[in-house]
Specification:
heterodimer; A: 106 residues; mainly beta; 6-stranded mixed beta sheet; 3-stranded antiparallel beta sheet; 0% helix; B: 116 residues; 4-stranded antiparallel beta sheet; 11 strands
Chain lengths: 106, 116
């Protein structure tokens, strides 16, 4: 079955740029979606179909996808961005989720 | 606005059964696929099952196949998860979510604890 690989953790200084990767075999030909889960809260969709933001998601959050890696980029990181982030694809009629990346803001 | 409200969680003994419900509002329920996703304490998200907008197709994770059944009642704007033969490893927060290929909206979850 298809697998997605994310780093367990990423740390970034306040105001800097955070980059979270999601690896998968030829993931570039799939649509990748990203979710943010703050502590104690339900997940929220922040990027769909590689690079589209739902309404209410700020422009400083962006996504890209190519070859074997999809990337979530958060510019001007704020304290409120500290959360777990999950990538996801739809493959063989199943939702495939990455293991999640904990973003720590220093 | 979209609202998804889960209910039916609780404590159940190993081998027991439980039925979760998710009542939807704020969108045309009969036009959307629905999912259940769970999260064990301190762990990541795990997709459980999905059902198409009209209930014609269902999909399951291997970990729950033949034990869990997803269904929906479009007249009641509600999706259900029937969970049988529950195991300790089924202990988790269970979220329902709207969408098919991606999960556009999520409920707040209902907690299921399997313990003797």
């Amino acid at each position: 079955s298809y697998e997605l690989t994310q780093p367990l953790s990423v740390s970034v200084a306040l105001g800097q740029t955070a980059i979270i990767t999601c690896g998968g075999n030829t993931i570039g030909i799939k649509s990748v979606h990203w979710y943010q889960q703050r502590p104690g809260q339900a997940p929220v969709l922040i990027i769909y179909r590689d690079s589209n933001r739902p309404s209410g998601i700020p422009e400083r959050i962006s996504g890209s996808n190519s070859d074997n890696t999809a990337t979530l980029t958060i510019s001007g990181v704020q304290a409120g961005d500290e959360a777990d982030y999950y990538c996801q694809v739809w493959d063989s009629s199943a939702v495939i989720l990455g293991g999640g990346t904990k973003l720590t803001v220093l | 606005q979209v609202q998804l409200v889960e209910s039916g969680g609780g404590v159940v003994q190993p081998g027991g059964s439980l039925r979760l419900s998710c009542e939807a509002s704020g969108f045309t329920f009969s036009s959307y696929g629905m999912h259940w996703v769970r999260q064990a304490p301190g762990k990541g998200l795990e997709w459980v099952t999905a059902i198409w907008f009209d209930g014609s197709r269902t999909h399951y994770a291997d970990s729950v196949k033949d034990r869990f059944t997803i269904s929906r009642d479009n007249s009641k704007n509600t999706v259900y998860l029937q969970m049988n033969s529950l195991r300790a490893e089924d202990t988790a927060m269970y979220y329902c979510a709207r969408g098919l290929q991606y999960l556009a909206d999520w409920g707040q979850g209902t907690l299921v604890t399997v313990a003797s």
